[in-house]
Structures are given as structure tokens and as C-alpha cells.
UniProtKB/TrEMBL annotation:
Keywords: Leucine-rich repeat, Repeat. This is LRC66 protein. One of its GO terms (cellular component) is plasma membrane. Signal peptide: none annotated. It comes from Sylvietta virens (Green crombec). Pfam families: LRR_1 (PF00560), LRR_8 (PF13855). It comes from the Eukaryota. The lineage of its organism: Eukaryota, Metazoa, Chordata, Craniata, Vertebrata. The keyword Repeat applies. InterPro entries: Leu-rich_rpt, Leu-rich_rpt_typical-subtyp, LRR_dom_sf, LRR_TM_domain-containing.
């Protein structure tokens, strides 16, 4: 009852002290702001399997600690997802492996196909979430102010549309030489400031497109 609905596109529930997501959110809503509340869990699908018109979802500054996005098959036109300022230590995007060693991609193929901006700043992540490559339209990923310790070869695998990566203020000590090699559209910013890097990164930097890319490496341990 404290949420503000414009009757058409915008639902604003910020600073309403709610602990659960309202069940009666209109499926015609384009922007939903649930920031600065006491929400602990977020489940995409409500069981009705009806597609939502939602394009922008703000869940920042809540109490979410674990999140699974593999059920988000009803948010096919969602473009921005803001999870900043939560307590997320587990973020699942990848599909589970079957007993035969293969992965079930029937659902994964429909995982947030329009998502362009994904922000999980100021959380408790210690690794880059596995399965970012399943977000086929992802252009911007912000993961600053977490506890990420290293960047592995497959962390950004298949992220062919990525243009902007913010990894500032983590605990990164190691980056695989080819971690960013196939990101041909990375042309805005690669921010690695305020980490724990101790040696220069020539192999990584040579593989990047310097003519279009800004790389920030200040305030590391070297």
C-alpha cells in the first residue's frame, strides 16, 4: 500500500521498509524500484509463466545474500538489473550439470536475453559469477567493491557484447593472460583500480584494443 504506482509504467517501492516483493505488481510495469528496503530473497518466476513488460529493475540496498537467475525466463525484455549494496555471496547464472556431464541449456538459452546492464557493486562476491556468457546482450558489468580475488580464463567467456567492465576496489591478485582476449567490443572502460595486483600485465594489455579502450590500473600493490 505504500508503493507508488503511476497507473501505467512506473512502480516505486523504495524506502517503504518492505521485506518481500509485492505479489500484485502489474505485469505492464516497465520500471520497478524496490531499493532501500529489507528484501532478503528474490525469485523471478511467479509460477504463471507469463512474460512481463519489465525493462528496469532496481533491487539495490536490500538484504539479499543468495540469488539464482536461472529461473528468470519471464523477464525477456529486462534491460537493466541493479543489485548494488546487498550481501550477495552466491550468484548463480550457469545451468547445473547433468549426470552425463552435459548442461541443460533449454532454459539457459532464454536467460534474460535483453539484459544490457548488470550491476552487483558493494556485495560479498569472491569470484566472478559463472555463466555471464549466457547473457547474450550484456554490454556493461559493474562488480566494484566486492572481494573478488582473481580473474580466470572462462570468467568472461562468450561475453561477446561486453563494452564496459568495472572491477575496481576488489582483492584481485591474479588475472589469466587471456581472460579478456575475445572481448572484441570492449571499448569503453576496463577498470582494475584499487586491487592487489603486484606485477604489470603486458600479455593482457597487448590483447586489448588500445585505440578504443580506457584501462585504469592505479592504486594497486606494484
Amino acid at each position: 500500500s505504500e508503493c507508488r504506482w503511476d497507473g501505467q509504467f512506473l512502480l516505486n517501492c523504495s524506502f517503504t521498509k518492505i521485506s518481500t516483493i509485492p505479489e500484485d505488481i502489474s505485469q505492464t510495469a516497465v520500471t520497478v524500484d524496490l531499493s532501500y528496503n529489507n528484501i532478503k530473497t528474490f525469485v523471478c518466476s511467479d509460477g504463471r509463466n507469463e512474460e512481463w513488460m519489465l525493462k528496469h529493475l532496481n533491487l539495490s540496498n536490500n538484504l539479499i545474500s543468495e540469488l539464482t537467475l536461472t529461473t528468470c525466463t519471464n523477464l525477456r525484455i529486462l534491460e537493466t538489473l541493479n543489485l548494488n549494496g546487498n550481501a550477495i555471496h552466491t550468484l548463480t547464472l550457469d545451468m547445473p550439470t547433468t549426470a552425463h556431464g552435459s548442461k541443460k541449456y533449454s532454459i539457459a538459452d532464454r536467460l534474460l536475453p535483453a539484459l544490457k546492464v548488470f550491476s552487483v557493486e558493494r556485495n560479498n562476491l569472491n569470484t566472478v559469477p559463472r555463466g555471464l556468457g549466457l547473457l547474450q546482450s550484456l554490454q556493461t558489468i559493474h562488480m566494484s567493491s566486492n572481494a573478488i580475488q582473481q580473474i580466470d580464463l572462462k570468467d568472461f567467456q562468450n561475453c561477446s557484447q561486453l563494452k564496459d567492465i568495472d572491477l575496481r576496489n576488489n582483492k584481485i591478485t591474479k588475472i589469466h593472460p587471456d581472460a579478456f582476449r575475445d572481448l572484441n567490443k570492449l571499448q569503453v572502460v576496463l577498470d582494475l583500480r584499487e586491487n592487489a595486483l603486484t606485477i604489470p600485465l603486458p600479455q593482457i594489455l597487448v590483447s586489448l584494443n588500445f585505440f578504443q579502450l580506457e584501462v585504469y590500473l592505479s592504486k594497486n600493490a606494484w
